Amino acid sequence: MDEGRVHLYWGEGKGKTTAAMGLALRALGQGLSVTVVQFLKNGESGELEPLRRLGAAVFAGEAGTRFVSQMTPAERAAVKARHGESLRLALDGPCELLILDEACAAWRLDMVDGALLKCAVLERPKRREVVLTGRDPADWMLAAADYSTEMCCRRHPFQQGVRARRGIEF
User: Fold this and answer.
1) 3-class state of residue 11 by DSSP
2) Residue 1: what pLDDT?
């Protein structure tokens, strides 16, 4: 690989994490080292275990983690610290593709060390590819993106009251 690029999958539509994980699968199939850091999720996403089995390093949340709006200040601080530690560990390991899932929300909600997140993207090693996902990216993320794909929802079963389904939405 020559110089790594920054990918941004963002917007209100479904498919941001799915696109990122599809890229992880492709990279693993081509022999690249892949690291996934999931922010603000409970570690139960269906794609994580198969990626681990294929050799990806995965840093994810813990089961039972609540939405940020439901957390106490102490819980917020603990989750933010855990996110920072996961990101530091991810950056210390070998990685040709780094996926920072829900980085946009983690940044906006101050649930990750902002300086460390910016460093992971803007000061990455020359050949490292970085993927950011989330609904509402910061201006610096939009400016840094070599690939910017906005997911736009036109129709979703949730709008008719259909709950998320295991294996499809999570």
Assistant:
1) coil
2) 59
